[in-house]
Fold this sequence. Notes:
One of its GO terms (cellular component) is membrane. Helices cover about 45% and strands about 15% of the residues.
Amino acid sequence: MSVTVRTDDDCLLWAEQTGSGPPLVLCHGGPGLWDHLDPIARLLGDHARVTRWDQRGCGRSQRRGPYAVARSVADLDAVRDQLAGPRTALLGHSWGAHLALRYALDHPERVSHLIYVSGTGIDADRGWHRHYERNLRTRLGHHRPRWEALGSRDRTPEEEREWAVLQWSADFAYPDTALRDAERMATPWLGLNRDCNRAVNAEVKRELASAELAERCRALDVPVLIVDGAEDIRPRWGVDSLHRALGTCRRVAIAGAGHLPWVEQPEEFRQAVTDFLAPERGGRGR
């Protein structure tokens, strides 16, 4: 069921709810993309009442700013308040993992569990990024010349989609199916919000330069699950900084999966998440 969330500054956000059970809110990646987590909602629909949403300025939500981390946290709080209730589990992917973490740090009493999927940690120097760039070009293989040609010039809307599909194909572990999986991510094509991407990424980089984030993570008293695809082109040691800061948390590496582990290894992903959310397990432990 699709619904509209109105934020405290009257921005209209698209959202959809499916499934039944305890509340779980999903935060998509980007920044500047739209929700592509419907497969997760289907995987978990028997275990949770799942809320998906398009972040401000993205996809089916109203295209307006401001674009900032604090604003994104406030928007997520509006989604939680209007659709999930007083306390919810959060699952964030990539940039959405950072958003979910920031929300849990700001509002720990409103978060029952935090699931951090394919994030990039809290290292100030972002040392993983040069390895990511090298791995991206390697995995693109024979698609690399076309991707580089498109990336070097202004693009038509059709070329923008083609460029994104080629880049996203590197996020999957298996070359034979990577392009098909990336095409599915891009369908329907709802466009990239470059202004949102630039503004939020710049703020996150500034935020990571401070020691405050690690200090706040050390004090966080919310059960946390870190899920990685072992074949992600973003090196998984980049997340070690967060794992160390959190102390007691659970971490699962899914073999044979890239940046979107639920696509290539859906049963392993579902099992990791449902085990963590199970009441008798309590989400605790390494």
